[in-house]
From TrEMBL:
Species of provenance: Streptantibioticus rubrisoli
PROSITE patterns tied to this protein: RIESKE
Molecular function per GO: dioxygenase activity
Segments forming domain Rieske: 37-146
InterPro entries to which the protein is assigned, alphabetical: Rieske_2Fe-2S, Rieske_2Fe-2S_sf, Ring_hydroxy_dOase_asu_C_dom, Rng_hydr_dOase-A
PANTHER family named in the record: CHOLINE MONOOXYGENASE, CHLOROPLASTIC (PTHR43756:SF5)
Known cofactor(s): Fe cation
Name the UniProt record assigns to this protein: Aromatic ring-hydroxylating dioxygenase subunit alpha
Tagged with keyword Oxidoreductase: yes
Keyword set, alphabetical order: 2Fe-2S, Dioxygenase, Iron, Iron-sulfur, Metal-binding, Oxidoreductase
Keyword hit for Transferase: no
Length: 377
């Protein structure tokens, strides 16, 4: 077996077991995904009162809907009678209430229990107390963020603070008017890899020269293998002959008019722990959300967001979408290549991070902190 003692300039990664152990994954579900703000859906997925979506967050299913007052509501997707899963569809629409298919308890869009067969024979039941259990919810950047913790952390600190730390000030993202953009395309990737491999991959650009030929053509700086986070604050510049952030460097779509001059012809990549990645370019925003479903399986839902008039006019988005769709497929193939080797005895002590990846070491420290003393021994 090779030695695990490293030169000082190199940092060890997490041990392989962190990517394969069901116990570690269960601890992450509880102490990361069920404890932090989680980006669950695009607000426009809940287009009108009664529209709903179900999402898996940690070990729970959560029902998202829009109430009559247009506010977004989130509930545990569990009937209060005998625990049947209330909604089994991923999305849909009800006219005014959710009815459990088992014994027909019925809940309005605010979660209140409004009808139950023979309930008059149970006069003592408190219809509010036996309403659907609420989950904390807020909206930002046109997305629905939820938190399953009994006492949610500050959204400002966890989510807004992380974006500000990456971009310098909140205005830098507000200028992309993300909430007002429209979903031009959504692609859902079912990735056979642990969620942390996907985060680590997104945080580095050491692999860009090897696996992303189209991306490095558009962003020549990336061919140097600098970490994506190196470009934080000033972004990565488009190549001199590149017209737009497209698969062949041809013209992009209409520029978001409020993007600042110094943000034009630049690409920014932001990781918002625990499960969001955002890419900002002058004419669109690429917004990824991960749903970790198993220790070796992560669904990634990716939205390409453009000006509403661009989407409404049916403009051709194909060259624009294809660039990052290829990047995603290249990245996820790399993650899937690593996953099976995580259980190799050769990787029991982990691998190494080169100096440009030191921020991935910081991510590992964060995982350690979240799980401190909470892993089975
Ligand atoms: Fe839902 Fe009985 S379990 S009504
Ligand atoms: Fe990549």
């Amino acid at each position: 077996m090779p030695t695990t003692s490293l030169p000082e300039s190199l940092i060890a990664t997490l041990p392989g077991g962190y990517y394969t152990s069901p116990e570690t994954f269960a601890a992450e579900q509880e102490h990361i995904f069920e404890s932090m703000w989680f980006c669950a859906a695009r607000s426009s997925d809940l287009g009108k009162p009664g529209a709903y979506r179900t999402v898996t967050v940690g070990r729970e299913s959560v029902l998202l809907t829009r109430a009559r007052d247009n506010s977004v509501r989130a509930f545990f997707n569990v009937c209060r009678h005998r625990g049947a899963r209330l909604c089994t569809q991923e999305s849909g629409e009800v006219s005014r209430a959710f009815q459990c298919p088992y014994h027909a308890w019925t809940y309005d869009l605010q979660g209140k229990l409004v009808a139950a067969p023979n309930l008059t024979k149970m006069p003592d039941i408190d219809r509010t107390a036996y309403g659907l259990a609420k989950v904390a919810v807020t909206e930002w950047l046109g997305y629905v963020w939820i938190c399953l913790a009994d006492d949610p952390p500050s959204f400002e600190e966890q989510v807004v603070g992380e974006i500000v730390a990456r971009l310098g000030d909140v205005g830098a993202i507000e200028r992309y008017a993300v909430a007002d953009l429209a979903v031009g395309r959504r692609i859902v990737y079912d990735v056979r890899a642990n969620w942390k491999l996907i985060v680590e991959n997104f945080m580095e650009c050491y692999h860009c020269a090897t696996i992303h030929p189209e991306l490095t053509d558009v962003l020549p700086e990336f061919a140097n293998g600098y970490a994506a986070q190196y470009f934080v604050g000033h972004g990565a510049e488009f190549g001199a002959d590149v017209k737009g952030f497209t698969v062949d460097g041809s013209d992009g779509l209409d520029r978001i008019p409020t993007v600042a001059e110094d943000q034009d012809r630049r690409y920014y990549a932001i990781t918002v722990k625990p499960q969001v990645f955002v890419n900002l370019v002058p004419d669109h925003v690429i917004f990824h959300r991960m749903y970790p479903l198993a220790v070796d399986r992560t669904v990634v839902e990716c939205d390409w967001l453009y000006l509403k008039e661009v989407v409404d006019a049916g403009r051709d988005l194909s060259r624009s979408v294809e660039l990052f769709d290829r990047v995603n497929r290249q990245d996820f193939a790399a993650c899937e290549r690593c996953q099976p080797a995580m259980s190799s005895r050769l990787y029991a002590g982990g691998g190494v991070l080169v100096p440009s990846e030191h921020h991935i070491g910081a991510f590992h420290d964060w995982v350690h902190d979240r799980l401190a003393d909470r892993l089975p021994r």
